[in-house]
Design brief:
251 residues, alpha/beta, Purple Acid Phosphatase, chain A, domain 2, six-stranded mixed beta sheet, 29% helix, binds zinc ion
Length: 251
Amino acid sequence: MLYGVFSDVHSNMEALEIVLSFFQKQGVEAFICGGDLVGYGPQPEQCLRKIRALKNLSVVCGNHDLAVIERMDPNWFNSCARAAVFWTRERLTPQSRRFLESLPGKIEHKEFSLVHGTPRKPPEEYLLSAAQFRENVSYVQTWPLFVGHSHIPLCFKLSGEKGEKVDMLFLEDGEGVKIPCAGFRAAPIDFNPGSVGQPRDHDPRASCALFDSKKRTFRIVRLDYDISSVQAKIRETELPEYLALRLAFGQ
Ligand code: ZN
């Protein structure tokens, strides 16, 4: 099965459309989405409608999704993120709100596992260190594990003869990783596909990935989109100016 893997769309419709049309051209058969569908960007309702319509979609909720549906306290967020949560709450149809309310925190699929942050603290913890990866291994049933949340394309995997080491790989455009072997509790490996709508690795292009479960490969893809159009839409709203500026810097 060829999966299109994406995360952290954050209400950025221009970036989402570019990513989904790339997936279509590649012949993607199913979708894996790591959450944070809304927050920050100017088109939450349009993005949710687009994502809801995808066939064969596995999707979990992110911390921004939870804050928008009042299941997480936005006072934990920085001021720009918090402002976007309140702004987004007023702009969802009942159907879109119900869709967000229906999202699970964790998915154990027969070919992968999926959470927004980490398996032990699904919507909250950022998976950014080798030590954290090792601590989370026992919480996963099926590898590979896909996560979002950090907005950085990243891979952690156990290595060494007895799995005594952890490799941490920052993944660039076109970079592929071979997934060692399939099966229950085999070869712990985790991937973050980066962020569609607000990349934070200093590359402003939308980030997504292809996962081929048969060939056991994962590949990051970066795609140009019309950043200035999204910035213009943000400036037509009361969303903070910083949310427009940061898109151009990939931060
Ligand atoms: Zn996010």
